[in-house]
Specification:
Blueprint lengths: L2 H24 L9 H8 L3 H7 L3 H23 L6 H17 L1 H8 L5 H22 L6 H24 L6 H18 L11
Helix pairs in contact: 1-2, 1-6, 4-5, 4-7, 5-9, 7-8
């Protein structure tokens, strides 16, 4: 085996160890409480080895989040194509849930109480504009733009909750099931808000 191939494998193996350590510690404490020494001891590497990969814990978190965001961004550009139809929206959802399941422990930690709220807001912002157009395609034509803005905010929060619960349960359903469920909830929920908003409920 060529020496450079061995080095690449060692490098990737160490990267995986460091990521595992970060994920484990984020489930217990916030990023500001995690030290390089603690992480290095946890995964049994020298601190000098850690510094060959990252400058500090915050650099590790940022680069980890950027890699995940790149995967999600690629899922948008490759699957959620224009025009925003239910078919390509479903393809995007299935790919997204696949990415989440492949990074389940990390995503659960990032969305947990010790996670990074700025990271979650970046994801929401990434999906906001295209989400507006997709919901518009589901919504009644007479739906006001103001109500559509409320709908996308509601939908994004709901999707985050759905994903969080799925990850918390260790992803028991396959990505295809979660994609279909999400599509149905968003589509039917958006269609239903075309009804008069102030109609009293029957006694």
């Amino acid at each position: 085996m060529p020496e450079n191939t061995k080095q690449e494998r060692r490098y990737r193996r160490t990267e995986n160890l460091i990521l595992h350590g970060l994920t484990t510690l984020l489930q217990k404490k916030s990023i500001k409480e995690i030290t390089v020494r603690e992480l290095s001891d946890l995964v049994d590497i020298n601190r000098s080895t850690f510094y060959l990969h990252y400058t500090d814990i915050y650099d590790l978190l940022e680069k980890t989040e950027q890699r995940l965001l790149k995967q999600l961004s690629d899922a948008v550009s490759e699957n959620w194509t224009e025009p925003e139809t239910p078919k390509n929206f479903y393809a995007f959802l299935e790919k997204t849930f696949t990415i989440l399941s492949e990074n389940a422990q990390l995503c659960s930690a990032l969305m947990g109480p010790n996670g990074d709220i700025a990271f979650l807001r970046t994801i929401e912002k990434m999906f906001h504009e295209k989400g507006m157009r997709t919901l518009r395609s589901f919504a009644p034509k007479q739906l006001r733009d103001e109500d559509l803005l409320y709908a996308i905010s509601f939908a994004l929060s709901g999707c985050m909750g759905l994903v969080s619960q799925w990850l918390k349960n260790s992803c028991p359903e396959p990505p295809s099931h979660m994609a279909e469920l999400t599509l149905i909830l968003l589509r039917e929920g958006t269609r239903s808000i075309g009804a008069p908003l102030c109609t009293p409920f029957p006694a």
